[in-house]
Amino acid sequence: MSSENPRQRPPNQADTDAILRLLGAHRSIRSYTDDPVPEADLAAAVQAGQAAATSSAVQAYCAIRITDPARRARLAELTGPQAKVRLAPEFLVICADSRRHRLLCQRDNKPYDQRLEGFLVAAIDAALFAQNMTVALEAMGYGTCYIGGLRNHLAEVITLLNIPEGVYPLFGLCVGKPAEQPSHRPRLPIDAVLFEGAYPADADMLERIDTYDATYRDYLTDRGAKPEQIDGAWSAAMATKHATPSRTDLAETYIRQGASLD
Q1: pTM for the whole structure
Q2: Largest interatomic CA distance in the chain
Q3: 188 pairs with which residues across the strands?
């Protein structure tokens, strides 16, 4: 009998096709059934997250599982309010985590001095960890939704969860069995994100975005969006979104939490 671990076996063509279908089928799920997520499934997803690439093996991430109803309710308020944060069978707070590295430096009588590079490495590591975990959960039939609203009142989140210095909450993650089947939100055409040799000229980029706007209008129409939303499409929404800063206290909050951004 072979002792080969099937999870470590290189994928064949059928595996590859299934993986590509899974990735292409991603939707943000905002409504869930009451079915719990078994501990074994959650553990398997976390292990899949840990298999993601990590810079120099630093593994600068963690997930804080929130099960206390009162904390969930408060987080639901702080993030929006967003009822799904309270109602999802599982809610995780994904963090960039330099705490363990600081403890090791302290134990070895060395300074911890990583500055902006250290913060970026931890944030990238945490995003890769979360995305691997999300793909694993979706492969098991769960739906997920990233919650950037966790950063709306970040200082209060840190206090609520008693998060120590060197741990930086980045976003939340709702998990559960889907109670909805939302339509697929179209993405930019590949020639707007994959370039040969150099970044395209501005006029070329705008032309590719205009092509995408037509596709996006069809998507909005199918969803029953208001006429003013359809007319503006993606480009107008992005121009509006990026014209005004948001969450302007983030740098100050992360610095208080121990981040060095210079």
Answers
A1: 0.93
A2: 64
A3: none
Residues 103-145 have pLDDT tens digits of 999 999 999 999 999 999 999 999 999 999 999 999 999 999 9
Residues in the chain: 262
CB neighbour list of residue 173: distance below 8 Å, 6 or more residues apart:
63, 91, 92, 93, 94, 130, 133, 134, 144, 145, 146, 147
- Give me the amino acid identity at 51: A
Region of 224 (left: φ > 0; alpha: ψ -120 to 50; beta: rest) is: left
Q: Which two tokens stand for residue 18?
A: 């299934």
